[in-house]
Amino acid sequence: MINETVTLPERPKKPKWLRVKLPVGKKYTELRGLVDKYKLNTICTSGSCPNMGECWGEGTATFMILGNICTRSCGFCGVKTGRPETVEWDEPEKVARSIKIMKVKHAVITSVDRDDLKDGGSIIWAETVDAIRRANPNTTLETLIPDFQGNEKLIQRIVDVHPEVVSHNMETVRRLTREVRIQAKYERSLGVLKYLKDKGMRTKSGMMLGLGEREDEVIQTMKDLREVGLDVLTMGQYLQPSKKHLPVKEFITPDQFKKYETIGLEMGFMYVESSALVRSSYKAHKHAS
Q1: How far apart, in whole angstroms, are the C-alpha atoms of residue 238 and residue 211?
Q2: pTM for the structure as a whole
Q3: Cβ-count burial of 223 within 10 angstroms (0-12 exposed, 13-18 middle, 19+ buried)?
Q4: DSSP 88
Q5: Are 199 and 237 in contact (CB under 8 A)?
Q6: Tens of pLDDT along 174-211?
Q7: End-to-end Cα distance, the chain
Q8: Using CA atoms, how far apart are residues 151 and 52, in angstroms rounded to an integer?
Q9: Higher pLDDT, residue 217 or 281
Q10: Any residues with CB less than 8 A from the CB of 91 and at least 6 apart, and which?
């Protein structure tokens, strides 16, 4: 019997431009102390965002509502999948209080998908924005929303409370959508963004690169997003949350990210944030003005 050794393809090694600087600065230290003292729930800390120090220094923070268990099982996302807990109806006031304690100038609100709820979580979404407005009238807002299964009645609840920016991420190109975002649909996400733009909202979306997409596919997705009137586009490097998630196929070079930025601005996007460590809420305060 002959023992054969199977050689698995090597995964690309993380390049030097993905090294993250440790957060520093007086503002970061102050906010970190408040988060720890009051046990505030920010995506910045729970997601170990590489831009946490920079964003906090600029007065921006991201909060996740509707629990931390998602009804979907996207191949890229580190959030737990399963049966979510019951809705906490006092959550809007808790988030508003956290923003006030932290003296956040620009807040980004996001959530898990709640396909288990008839309203998709849209009522809590709207009440959260209203609560933040009451407690923090000078704070600008970005809402990074799920697709609400394309239900315009639910999306309209976000429009009605009129945050400065409404974001919904495409995440990847059309060909990879089924693999990367298992329960999502490329056209449905475009439809959500079009509906928001038609209602007069400033719209934003994000893409992860390095999942095996081709340059022409990225550019086509950018064109599709401009066709539905998208204002702001973020593009960053996909990083594998665990071995159970989709592997990184390629590390995109800084020059390639810069190329996409140039192409995007030429297409007419208001803002394009394109570099390896960019995440959805990177420079978010700038996009509200």
Answers
A1: 7
A2: 0.88
A3: exposed
A4: -
A5: no
A6: 999 999 998 899 999 999 999 999 999 999 999 999 99
A7: 70
A8: 33
A9: 217
A10: 65, 66, 124, 128
8 A C-beta contact, residue 153 and residue 165 = no
Using CA atoms, how far apart are residues 94 and 182, in angstroms rounded to an integer? 32
Q: Say if residue 69 is exposed, middle or buried (CB neighbours under 10 Å; 0-12, 13-18, 19+).
A: middle
Mean pLDDT of the region 28-46: 72
Q: Which two tokens stand for residue 162?
A: 């009129």
Contact present, 11 and 247 (Cβ < 8 Å):
yes
CATH 3.20.20.70 fits 21-287, yes or no: yes
Question: Residue 24: pLDDT band by 50, 70, 90 thresholds?
Answer: low
Comparing C-alpha atoms, which of 128, 118, 109, 108 is closest to residue 71?
Answer: 118
HSE-CB of 83 using CA atoms within 13 angstroms: 1
Residues 6+ apart with CB under 8 A from 116: 71, 83, 84
Residue 128 is which amino acid?
A: T
Q: What are the residue boundaries of the structural domains of the chain, listed by start?
A: 21-287
Six token digits for residue 97: 């209080």
- How much is the pLDDT for 2? 45
Please check the confidence at residue 9 and state whether its pLDDT lies above 70.
Answer: no
